[in-house]
Amino acid sequence: MLGVLLVLHGSKIPEWKDVGIKYAEYLSRYFNLVEFGFLEFNKPTLSEALSNLLAKGANKIVVVPLLFATGTHFKRDIPRLLGIDGDEKKIQYMGKEIEIIIADPLGFDEKIGEVLVKRVNETYNKNY
Asked: Assembly and partners?
């Protein structure tokens, strides 16, 4: 069964968790097993979120970093926190081999650009 694991950076500000909750709820319309985890500061951690998916029966997991670009978190931290070693895309869980695929960072996307335009206009109109 496919599991989707959203990865958020995390913050000392508790409201960061609300973003994870909202994106997980949104993706739950399309996928049965969706969890989110944070790289630092907030709970659930990435490892805890992975454990939740595995406990619910996920045997293939697509990891979706909510990051804009490739960097240290993407290249080093996410694989390490998921227990992925090198180019290996599998982990062992209760005697089973679990495939983990990490999606690319968000990068540039015109739909995200449209959201940015909307935010600029909302902010400008609210203040002028």
From this structure: Homotetramer; dimer of dimers.
Per the annotation, binding residues for substrate are 43, 68-73
Sign, CA dihedral 36-38-44-47, equals positive
> Which residues define the annotated binding site?
9, 43, 68-73
The per-residue pLDDT for 29 is: 98
Which residues participate in catalysis according to the annotation?
Answer: 9
- pTM equals 0.92
Mean pLDDT on 88-96: 85
Measured CA to CA, the distance from residue 96 to residue 104 in angstroms comes to 26
78 φ, ψ (degrees, to nearest 5): -60, -50
Indicate the class that CATH gives domain 2-127. alpha beta
